[in-house]
Specification:
heterodimer, A: mainly alpha, three-stranded mixed sheet, 5 strands, about 5% strand, B: mainly alpha, ABC transporter involved in vitamin B12 uptake, BtuC, two-stranded antiparallel sheet
Chain lengths: ~400, ~350
């Protein structure tokens, strides 16, 4: 006689009451993305201002990067402070495999794969950008796993430090390998930068040019769409659930049969490869790969994006990354910078850009740790935490 | 018969892993000095070059030891990497540099005013950095004590950025020179051909009394006992009537004061200060704390000295542009071989 089997416990009644601003699920799933997509696609049609279009393209590339970091930090809960490493590796893939940098390769004739136009008889290594993207994904995924390996045994803050150390090592290599040559060419061009870099040249389309940046922007949207799709599928997959399980409670997850090593390494690899995609794209868009781009502050910028948006929440990360890109590329240099002169002060606001990010991180964590658009699970967790907080270890005495 | 042929004990892979865990880190650490010693003997026939590296490394390491203690104390008590600690060290440097300017001390000043001026600068820098560290704890960490562990770490990064910018606004983006009051490069005496400079003596003379006072304070005094109790079990400490909040503030104060002292020595030693010194310096000191076994005071000192050696050797023989990469590579290697550090058994015991 199994009483339990015949009388399954009633599922708990889910409260239908919605708190605050929340739309019905069909609107959230279809209408909002559609509207956002239409606005995003038609944005450059409104203006001929090329620098605006470039800023938009950069912002979208930052979103791609933030989505990658979100996999590592938001889904898997592994705080990565060296994300700039993947930006660097991705960008160097473009610099190495799609530019005239290796001028002496193949006896000065160059290596060309699937490129047309005037580039086809230039010296250096010239691969089609799609091939470069694949290479960048491969390289960064491998780098992500290598960076992940030593952190497997470690806990939260140690992971942060090790990834930070790796990011710094890669940054240092980018600067210092200027003095180490392969053949006649230095491995990286250091602070001087690898420039110019090949423009993107897609099959069936006109080659992109530096004069009209709209195709660049649309291409970045394509990349973003792809990355978003992969992100959603990953989140809802077996692997995504394993990441979240590891984040919530590693011991319990491992006891339930989640392979910790494989799961963590895959988180690092997939997060890193998004950074590589974005890095390769930015290398081509900005037309230079320069060691000065790869500084610790960039890792913090991307981290601030996902924290502002909401750790683990895909739409939140998109919003956070766009907000900070606008803040970084438009508001601080153009709008806020004017303020001190209006009240008669001589002060360059761009100097304190990173203090603004720091302040933002601080305030977000204290006032709204779940971010602008919180992930559902995180929201539940934080609400639960508030109720039991007086049982935690370090409750302050009044 | 067959049973006898099977070797007793764990399988080979596990034994290798155990061996690596025990000796891996030591081997990695000895690699550089041994290589350079062989190099020296081959080229010069003596070990003077290595000896000079070691002396400079010792005095340099003393600075990192002071900063590393701040990391280790704070980690021992709240299990948080105080990311802003490097910036506290930088602010300590700035305070002392500014104070030296305000007091009007220059290279030409006589020995007595220089001595008292430096003493005043030391006290002010220690108090300033200590207070700053306490404020950081109040603003950035205390509101988040019951939050998930990621949260205070992120505010720590935020705080570090804010302070870095404070430094940038205070002294500008370039390295600022500090009057070379102690005549840092002047050779005081030589032992076996190894020159000892004023700066080496200064850093040892300031560091050792501070370390003695600190260890005595933590192991003997009532407040030190409270600190150790809180580090072991905050909940139980609270039940025993220890004011956990005050104790945590005190820990941050002590750590900040040592960082301030390190800041002064750094300013005198390098004769330049820079807003970015806190970031690299902080990471180097953190590596030192981890190498010694975080949470362990003696470990932090040992780690600081070792990192000082590594840094000097790499500065001197490989090139200073590679030094950060090498120190960070060591950090990663420690994490691979022995995350608990050299004296790691005593973790969670801040005494």
């Amino acid at each position: 006689m199994s009483v339990a089997a015949s009388k399954a416990p009633e599922p708990p009644v889910v409260s239908k009451k919605r708190r605050g601003f929340e739309l019905p699920s069909w609107a959230e799933k279809i209408v909002i993305p559609l509207v956002v997509a239409i606005i995003a696609i038609s944005l450059p049609l409104l203006t001929d201002n090329q620098s605006f279009v470039q800023q938009c393209a950069v912002a979208v590339a930052y979103v791609v990067m933030a989505l990658g970091l979100n996999i590592v930090v938001g889904f898997a809960g592994l705080l990565d402070l060296g994300y700039v490493a993947f930006f660097a590796i991705g960008a160097y893939c473009t610099g190495w495999f799609a530019s005239g940098y290796w001028a002496y390769v193949n006896g000065g004739k160059g290596i060309h794969i699937a490129v047309g136009g005037f580039i086809a008889d230039r010296e250096g290594i010239h691969f089609n950008f799609l091939i470069v993207l694949v290479i960048a994904v491969l390289f960064t995924a491998i780098a992500g796993m290598i960076i992940g390996l030593p952190t497997l045994r470690l806990r939260g803050d140690y992971i942060a430090i090790v990834t930070l150390a790796f990011g710094e090592i890669i940054g240092r290599l980018a600067v210092n390998l200027d003095s180490v040559n392969i053949g006649k060419t230095a491995i990286t061009a250091g602070r001087q930068g690898i420039s110019p870099v090949d423009r993107i040249d897609l099959p069936f389309l006109e080659p992109f040019t530096g004069l009209n940046l709209k195709p660049w922007y649309w291409f970045s949207l394509v990349l973003l769409g792809l990355v978003l799709f992969v992100n959603f599928r990953l989140r809802d997959s077996r692997m995504g659930r394993a990441w979240i399980a590891l984040r919530e409670d590693e011991i319990a997850a491992v006891a339930m049969g989640v392979p910790a090593v494989k799961t963590k390494l895959l988180a690092y690899a997939s997060g890193a490869s998004f950074g590589g995609i974005s890095g390769a794209y930015l290398g081509s868009l900005l037309n230079t790969v320069n060691a000065d781009q790869f500084q610790f502050s960039f890792s913090i910028l991307v981290l601030a994006m996902i924290i502002l948006g909401g750790l683990g929440s895909i739409w939140g990360v998109v919003v956070g990354a766009l907000t900070l890109s606008i803040l970084n590329n438009y508001l601080i240099p153009d709008v806020i910078n004017e303020l001190p002169s209006k009240v008669g002060l001589e002060f360059d606001m761009t100097q304190i850009t990173f203090a603004i990010y720091g302040f933002l991180l601080l305030m977000m964590m204290i006032l709204r740790p779940q971010g602008l658009i919180p992930e559902r699970r995180h929201k539940m967790e934080l609400a639960e935490h508030a109720e039991t907080s007086d049982e935690t270890l370090y409750t302050a005495r009044a | 018969m067959e049973a006898a042929s099977i070797p007793a004990g764990p399988p080979a892979s596990q034994r290798i892993r155990a061996l690596l865990g025990t000796y891996g880190l030591t081997v990695v650490l000895l690699l550089m000095p041994v290589l350079f010693a062989i190099d020296d003997i081959k080229n010069d026939g003596n070990l003077v070059g290595l000896g000079e590296n070691l002396v400079a490394g010792l005095s340099n390491g003393a600075i990192w030891a002071l900063v590393a203690i701040g990391y280790t104390l704070v980690y021992g008590i709240v299990e948080l990497i105080n990311f802003a600690h490097g910036e506290v060290f930088m602010i300590g440097s700035f305070i002392s540099a500014s104070l030296i300017g305000t007091l009007g001390l220059t290279i030409k000043s006589a020995a007595v005013p220089v001595f008292f001026g430096l003493l005043v600068a030391l006290v002010v820098a220690m108090l300033g950095s200590g207070t700053l560290n306490v404020l950081i704890e109040k603003v950035a960490y205390r509101p988040l004590r019951s939050a998930p562990k990621l949260a205070p770490l992120i505010t720590a990064v935020g705080m570090s950025f804010i302070l870095q910018n404070v430094g940038l606004l205070w002294k500008g983006g370039n390295q600022q020179s500090v009057p070379d009051l102690v005549d840092a490069q002047h050779t005081l005496f030589t032992i076996f051909g190894v020159t000892i400079e004023n700066a080496d003596v200064l850093s040892i003379v300031v560091t050792i009394p501070l370390l003695l006072v600190m260890t005595n304070f933590i192991s003997r005094s009532r407040l030190g006992k409270a600190m150790r109790a809180t580090a072991q079990d905050p909940e139980a400490a609270r039940l025993m009537g220890i004011n956990v909040d005050t104790t945590i503030s005190l820990t941050f104060l002590l750590g900040g004061m040592l960082a301030g002292a390190a800041g002064l020595i750094y300013a005198m030693y390098q004769t330049t200060v820079w807003y970015f010194q806190g970031f690299t310096g902080g990471l180097i000191a953190f590596t030192a704390a981890v190498m010694g076994g975080i949470g362990n005071l003696r470990g932090a000192v040992l780690g600081g000295v070792i990192i000082g050696f590594i840094q000097q050797m790499s500065d001197n023989r490989i090139g200073s542009e590679w030094t950060p990469a090498i120190v960070f590579a060591y950090l990663v290697l420690i994490m691979v071989f022995k995350p608990s550090g050299l004296l790691g058994e005593q973790t969670r015991d801040a005494g």
